[in-house]
Design goal:
This protein is mainly α and 527 residues long. 43% of the residues lie in helices and 7% in strands. Helix 5 crosses helix 8 and helix 8 crosses helix 10.
């Protein structure tokens, strides 16, 4: 099961099979409202498929987000998070009425931060917008505008097939089973768009059923002849579309509460056992975990993942991104480092090439970021193996953003800052390649250097105590004058066999010359 595909990382191609898509550079029209959910900036027309499209204004670029040097038109972005959409300009009277209405309708939120699904913060979105926008599948209301979408035909078919298998004829009955309290969605999604609760209930229910049917398709090994989920082969019939869909499922804000999926799985006449569903979720987490480099057909990837997250079930996590974060950062039960949630200012390390000059070496370890450790006596820094594909940057950025908004401790941010400080030139990459820490599948060293150098822009440089222990120990050796001189001496005279042999011969010659001088002096005085 789930062994017939290999991970293919290709550039995004926004083309969903058999769906009417507005031709480039047009985009589906954004919903218009008096105060801030509309797209604006172009003339409205209809394409050949009778989808209303909008011709974007040439002046509408990313500079609305404060990024004037990118020069990419907004029309190239799909499924932009609702909070990041540009707001229309208001005159003084309109702004006054708008602000009064906001004050009248303002209510204190009742959500718990630990359980909330939060959209991407603007400060991070501005740095690399495409890393946070779904390419194919939108999940939940934070990345979805209430307008036609290419994925809607697939989602509608999933709902119909699900209702047919369960002998459910009333859509409202199914929706109430999945989300009995639609008002509670405002306690789950932070920054919920101003949609009515009936629309939100239907939207989230449809997305939950689609996610469930997609997991069935994965469990049945993407078999087009399968009676239960084979119909999805029409939509996910190539590795590019499938890989991009998996990428979308791990974006911040594009998440679904795991409790909704569990509620569907526990309905009567279940299609699969609950343990099969858990295994399938673990499989797709393995597919997107950049630290899991074991081959999927080797049979070891499931053991690798369960060893890291022992004691935690995927259905007990908040959502899929939360489970991925745990698998990337959870400390092993045998770890020597204690759990610490305190945050401290981060000390940046010198480049990898500079550390190598003072004798600090690097070694690749199997596991997640919890395996990072500095050995003072051996002068060795252990780092997890990381395979970098085209979509790895998106996953890493969303994990960093999720930790900044929903977690405490700064473990993943500390790892990102450490790698950013170690990598600055292709020479640094070569050192990490040789030690097995990095695998570059991007095609060039320049792309990987640029990725790491931009990873920590607008990120608060705080981390946990364990990172401070590591960085201060490394900096203590790096700044130690005598230790650096000792390492340079060893590198100069003892790094090669012929060097230390010649050094030994020179020392012996010096000793013999000294002995000869001593004996000559003694003979002189004795005579």
């Amino acid at each position: 099961m789930m062994s017939g595909r290999t991970s293919s990382q290709s550039d995004p191609q926004w083309a969903f099979p058999y769906e009417p898509i507005a031709p480039y550079p047009h985009t589906l029209t954004q919903p218009s409202s008096p105060y801030g959910r509309g797209g604006g900036g172009g003339e409205t027309e209809y394409n050949n498929n009778n989808f209303m499209v909008s011709s974007p204004s040439p002046q509408l670029h990313y500079d609305i987000f404060g990024i004037k040097d990118r020069g990419i038109p907004l029309s190239e972005l799909h499924n932009v998070p609702v909070e990041q959409l540009p707001q229309p300009k208001l005159n003084e009277m309109e702004w006054e009425e708008y602000m009064k209405r906001k004050i009248d309708n303002a209510q204190r939120p009742a959500f718990e931060k630990r359980r909330a699904i939060i959209s991407i913060p603007r400060a991070l979105f501005e740095v690399k917008p495409k890393c946070y926008c779904p390419w194919i599948v939108t999940i939940g209301p934070l990345c979805r505008k209430l307008e036609p979408s290419p994925i809607d035909r697939c989602k509608a078919l999933c709902v119909k097939e699900f209702m047919s298998r369960r002998n459910i004829s009333n859509l409202k009955e199914l929706v109430d089973l999945i989300i009995p309290n639609p008002q509670g969605l405002s306690n789950i999604y932070f920054g919920l768009p101003t949609y009515n609760f009936d629309s939100l209930q239907l939207l989230v229910s449809v997305d939950t059923i689609f996610f469930y049917e997609f997991l069935l398709f994965v469990i049945h090994d993407y078999n087009p002849d399968d009676e239960t989920s084979g119909y999805l082969f029409t939509f996910f019939n190539n590795e590019i579309t499938f890989s991009q869909t998996l990428r979308d499922l791990f974006l911040m804000g594009n998440q679904l509460p795991m409790s909704f999926l569990k509620r569907i799985a526990e309905l009567p006449q279940a299609d699969i056992e609950l343990n099969e569903l858990v295994y399938c979720l673990q499989y797709i987490v393995w597919r997107r975990n950049p630290f899991m480099i074991s081959h999927p057909e080797s049979g070891s990837h499931h053991k690798d993942l369960t060893d890291l997250i022992q004691g935690i079930s995927v259905l007990e996590c908040e959502h899929l991104l939360d489970y991925l974060y745990i698998s990337c950062s959870r400390k092993n039960v045998n770890s020597e480092m204690p759990e610490d949630l305190s945050c401290f200012p981060t000390c940046r390390l010198p480049r990898a090439s500079e550390l190598l000059k003072v004798g600090i070496k690097f070694k690749a370890r199997k596991g997640n970021i919890s395996v990072i450790k500095y050995h003072r006596k051996k002068l060795r820094l252990d780092l997890p193996r990381l395979a970098v594909f085209d979509e790895t940057e998106d996953i890493l950025r969303n994990l960093v953003a999720y930790e900044l908004t929903s977690k405490i401790g700064g473990d993943f941010c500390g790892y990102a800052i450490m790698m950013d400080s170690l990598i600055d030139t292709p020479e640094d990459l070569t050192i990490l390649y040789r030690s097995g820490v990095l695998e570059n599948h991007l095609g060039s060293d320049e792309r990987l250097v640029k990725m790491w150098n931009e990873m920590c822009v607008n990120i608060s440089e705080i981390s946990s105590q364990r990172w401070e222990v590591i960085t201060k120990s490394i900096l203590g050796h790096y700044k130690s004058h005598w230790r650096v001189m000792y390492v340079e001496f060893c590198a100069k005279f003892f790094s090669r066999p012929w060097l230390w042999l010649s050094s030994l011969a020179a020392v012996l010659l010096l000793i013999m010359s000294a002995l000869q001088t001593v004996y000559s002096v003694l003979a002189y005085y004795q005579s």
